[in-house]
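Hi Q.,

Before the meeting this afternoon, I wanted you to have the cobalamin prediction in hand. No need to reply - just skim if you have a minute. The sequence and ligand are here:
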Amino acid sequence: MSVLLSSVFGPYGVDDAYGRKENVMELFHNQVTREQGIFSFRFHHQSFGLYMIAENIAAPAVVLDFPAEEAFVRELGRGYDFVGISFIVPNFLKAKRMAELVRLHAPASKIVLGGHGTQIPGVEHLIEHDHICRGEGVKWFRRLLGEEPDRPLRHPVMSAGFDQRLFGFRVGDNAGSLFPGVGCPNACRFCATSHFFGKRYTPFFDTGQELFDACVENERRLGSRDFFVMDENFLKRPQRARELLDLIEKNGKDYGFGIFTSAETIASLGVELMARLGVYFVWVGVEAQRDMFEKNRGIDLGKVIRDLRDHGIIVLASGILFLEHHDRESIWDDIRYLVGMEPDFVQFMQLGPMPGTALYRDYDERGLLRKDVPYEEWHGQHRLWFRHPDFTPEESEQLLRDAFRYDFDTLGPSLLRICNTLLRGYETLGRYRDPLMAKRRERLRRQATSYRPALAVLRHYAHNDHVRDLVRDLEARYGRVLGPTTTGQRLLGLVARGYAAREAARVASGRTMYQPKTIRTQYRYA
Ligand code: B12
Ligand code: SF4
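Predicted structure with the ligand bound:
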């Protein structure tokens, strides 16, 4: 048995027969720092689910990530028994085209469809296939191949992102990735992942020991000491997190973790424990001001975000626009609320009823879905694909852009906020006397120092007087906390200015897209 697992073909984020320019294949540039010009954080992620499957089946396998259509066809020529295609809803047409290509060029191969796109109603009549996997794929694939599904899992060793760039300058890709599990039991009505994985959490790795071992292996092979944890709510299993913390302490490691989490979990664990564990980044769903999400009930989110930043933890707060109750005033109340909490990053996402969710079912029953909008446009960063009582699709596009601009105009580039967080954390952790916190503090100092040359760019490209003041405050804070700028830092600042000038010209010309490179990975071939 041989298996090919492929993501959908590129190019991505362009208007063509299969996709749209707003559907950008970059997390931050798509939905977080998209209006921050040269300050936007740029990087790509591999299609983690495919590697997780390939690593954990016994058959020889190839993962083909970000192929061009021709590269996919060439790969089919190798004659695989199974060809798996992973796709999400907006990539429906690409998956359909790929399945046609398999039938044409590799008629003996069996087609397997997987990923969130399989929730599309009637997908079984719309795309050629032999099998469909809806939900968790590792055990499912093992069953398909006649393997024992429940044998222990191996964690793939891979970077969290690649081709990371700041001002067009390539910074290292040395953060690793961890996949503790998939799904979330909270079942928020709009949430695609919770519904896709059956409104429950399915752990891949249930103990702190397994995760610690994965970190050690990653460090040994890739040199990673920071890890992005791809799990909806990693800390929701506090026992596993505490065990991981014990092992980190016992083994004298200074691993750091970027995580997704919810306010209730932060409140129950406490910010200090998170800092101790080495959490350096959190993505937290604020969603909206109105008390409509169980996970945020009774929690002072502004205080939580302040506390996190005071402990050197970078915060991304995400909000949903165009909720049912939003009108022209209340939507701006929510935008101001989110920005007013001063997170390092803000994600604004348009409410989007995705197939499989409770929201989709509800809107479908009420006839609110605009089924004339093709799936390529169902992605939440352009226009609504449902009928909102107060906003037209065109208004939703403009308002989303205005919200991002408001965040940028008010709080400045996220880079500036991050530098502040690192310095705040460095000051706060000075209060603790134990060796682990001393290590965490030292790490904050190193990071703040490494960003210091970027101050020259922040100063030069500050886009309004208010942001210029913020940069001035930050420079003063640097001086107070870490002492005067060194000659080396000044020189590096000049180099950064050079890169930034080139990036500014690129952005001004409108050529802002970076395409991910094709990555081909073989498993168990001689
Ligand atoms: C990383 C990520 C990305 C990366 C994509 C990297 C890549 N190479 O594709 C980036 C940042 C670029 C990205 C972009 C976008 N994303 Co995205 N992304 C994610 C995220 C956060 C994690 C995915 C992941 O790796 N999970 C961990 C792995 C282990 O799980 P998994 O991928 O689900 O895979 C498992 C199963 O699904 C299944 N499986 C998956 N594929 C296959 C294939 C086969 C053959 C089989 C058998 C099984 C199988 O088995 C795997 C193991 O169990 C998810 C949210 C989430 N937490 O899952 C959103 C998510 C997948 N993205 C989503 C969306 C909408 C987008 C965007 C449109 C942006 C946006 N508006 O949010 C763009 C689209 C870009 C484009 N042009 O295609 C939605 C999809 C919704 C839907 N119903 O289709 C999600 C669910 C977020 C959300 N909650 O809305 N994304
Ligand atoms: S808490 Fe987050 S991951 Fe869990 S269901 Fe709600 S939105 Fe989804």
